[in-house]
Amino acid sequence: MAGANANPDLPASAPTWAGEAEVRDYLALLKPRVMSLVVFTALTGLVVAPGAVHPVLGFMAVLCIAVGAGASGALNMWYDADIDALMERTAGRPIPAGRVSRGDALGLGLGLSMASVMTLGVLVNWLAAGLLAFTIAFYIVVYTMWLKRRTPQNIVIGGAAGALPPVVAWAAATGSLGWGAAALFALIFLWTPPHFWALALLKSGEYKKSGVPMLPVVAGEARTRREILIYSFLVAGAGLLPWATGIAGPLYAAAATALGLMFIAFAVLVWRRPEPVWPQRLYGFSILYLFLLFAFLLVGGGAGA
């Protein structure tokens, strides 16, 4: 199938046509590692939301959110195939490697987007479906097509897309929104910039080569390290918001405080020491940080926990 060119300057290394692809190549388009994090945060949002949801409807809600995230991944790879071909970290993805055509990726992404939104609306509720549709559109149109190639604030603003899955799940469980959903959103939203800027410090050469204006490329490493430090305090504070809004108890608050202080400590080391090992360690710890916070929420949510 012929693929549509998102950009006229697509290099030859990012082909618009591919031969027969394997199932694993189409699965790779869905960004399964990202999808797993989306499933985990959405499940947490579903569990900590007030009230009860039927297990079948809860399962369908999380499944639709996961499929929507996978659709976003496929659409992102469709549009960013030219950038992916220029970066060592992404050159092996199915489209730049020539295993899947851009047209197939576009069709898969659009099909899964419509299916996930409509299924969530029909089986659960239309508020959750509308939020899921907004999440997909924001990630593709606002972040991928607009922000990513034009501003070093791409991650800051674009992080809203990654912060919405637990909000969608909350809406699926309750049919409404609340301060608890806002707390989950704020936690992921503020976590996203220092997480990705740590990676950007390690891959600044690749981002420069591909023309993506990440903060280290545009403002330099010193500014990026300083911004990471500033955001680390915001992240530590946001980690306490679930407790402050009553969806988590003192055990979670203690864990969030300890993990927040560790996040700040890693950020201080990134700020003060130029060795690349520290951004690498902060990047790894930031993933563990978010996982542990949501794990504590998942197993110990509720004001009395």
Work out the strand percent. under 5%
Helix content: over 70%
State mean pLDDT (0 to 100 scale).
89
For the record, the count of structural domains works out to 2
What's the overall geometry? flat
Poorly predicted regions are 1-19
Which radius of gyration do the C-alpha atoms yield? Answer: 19 Å
Overall description:
- It contains 15 helices and no strands.
- With 305 residues, it is mostly helical.
- It has two domains: 177 residues, Tetracycline Repressor, domain 2; 128 residues.
- The chain starts with 22 loop residues before the first helix and ends in a 5-residue tail after the last helix.
Secondary-structure map:
Layout: H1 23-29, H2 32-48, H3 55-79, H4 81-86, H5 102-123, H6 126-147, H7 154-163, H8 165-174, H9 179-202, H10 204-210, H11 215-219, H12 221-238, H13 241-244, H14 250-272, H15 277-300
List keywords for this structure.
2 domains; 15 helices; Tetracycline Repressor, domain 2; mainly alpha; flat; 305 residues
Summarize the model shown:
This protein has 15 helices and no strands.
